[in-house]
Design brief:
This protein is of the alpha/beta class and 272 residues long. It has one domain: Phosphoenolpyruvate-binding domains (TIM Barrel, Alpha-Beta Barrel). The chain is built from 11 helices and 8 strands. Strands 1-2-3-4-5-6-7-8 form an 8-stranded parallel β-barrel, surrounded by 6 helices. Strand 4, helix 6 and strand 5 form a beta-alpha-beta unit. The protein is elongated and about 80 Å long. The termini are far apart.
Length: 272
């Protein structure tokens, strides 16, 4: 069964699709043993890994590097690499060169933001057998054009525009749609308008699946929390507590213990 057939089967059966981000080997290795359907290596890593204020400071080589690391840890999962800012907007050949880099890095599918101006690329990728996911609603790399990181689909005109974009992505051969930061009824309308799964990032309950950024859901991102994020553990405090306990053990000479120390060789004389 192809990925497209499997995704459509999940949608038809009403089974939810779960996607989580990963940017490095250690987290990918953990996610490989979980119930997630897919792992996204997106340009959000510019913010959560590299500390930039937005996603625009990310290039194809950076995504490729992180994709290679994730592939080594999550060998059994479906990997989605996001095409970063301008990587698909400098001409068709350069876009396809970038596609090749990400697929060879280990991506099973590509995520592309927006529809207008990308139609030829979407269609060509579909015809070339490269699974593609379209990203609509709030598209972070377009935040300068849409007035910042804010919810979309808040007017009837905007709602209808998003629905039409979704229909185009369906016709262009995408295997799924990422729909970000829209009211719940818009998510439901988009879901009903297309044959492919709609995975929400802050799109309400009535879509075909949900995606979250791993550091956000684990409580590692302490300086920015979107409305749609649910925190499943307080990771930042857990790390601070563990590191502070390590520091306390060092100061108290409680670390390392004998169990954590190498024994001398048989021919070595120890001073008493």
């Amino acid at each position: 069964m192809s990925v497209l057939e499997n995704f459509k089967k999940l949608k038809a059966e009403g089974k939810k699709i779960v996607v989580v981000t990963s940017h490095e080997y250690w987290s990918a290795k953990i996610l490989n043993e979980t119930d997630v359907n897919g792992i996204l290596i997106g340009d959000d890593l510019a913010m959560v890994v590299h500390g930039h204020e937005d996603t625009m400071n990310c290039d194809v080589e950076t995504i490729a590097m992180h994709t290679r690391a994730v592939k080594k840890g999550a060998k059994d999962k479906f990997l989605i690499a996001g095409m970063p800012f301008m990587s698909n907007r400098k001409g068709f050949k350069e876009a396809m060169d970038n596609v090749e880099i990400l697929i060879k890095a280990g991506a099973n599918a590509l995520k592309i933001e927006g529809v207008d101006g990308n139609e030829e690329l979407y269609a060509h990728l579909s015809q070339s057998g490269i699974p593609t996911i379209g990203h609509i609603g709030l598209t972070p790399s377009h935040h300068n054009a849409i007035g910042g990181f804010k919810a979309q689909g808040k007017t009837k005109e905007s709602e209808l525009s998003i629905i039409e974009e979704a229909k185009k992505l369906d016709k262009l051969g995408c295997i799924a749609i990422v729909l970000e930061a829209v009211p719940q009824h818009v998510g439901a309308a988009v879901r009903d308008a297309v044959s492919i799964p709609v995975v929400g990032v802050g799109a309400g309950l009535d879509v075909d699946g949900q995606a979250l950024v791993l550091p956000d859901m684990l409580g590692f991102s302490t300086d920015f929390k979107p409305k749609f994020v649910r925190t499943y553990m307080n990771g930042a405090d857990l790390i601070k507590d563990a590191v502070n306990q390590f520091a306390a053990d060092v100061h108290a000479e409680a670390f390392p213990s004998a169990k954590e120390t190498y024994a001398p060789g048989k021919d070595q004389q120890l001073k008493k």
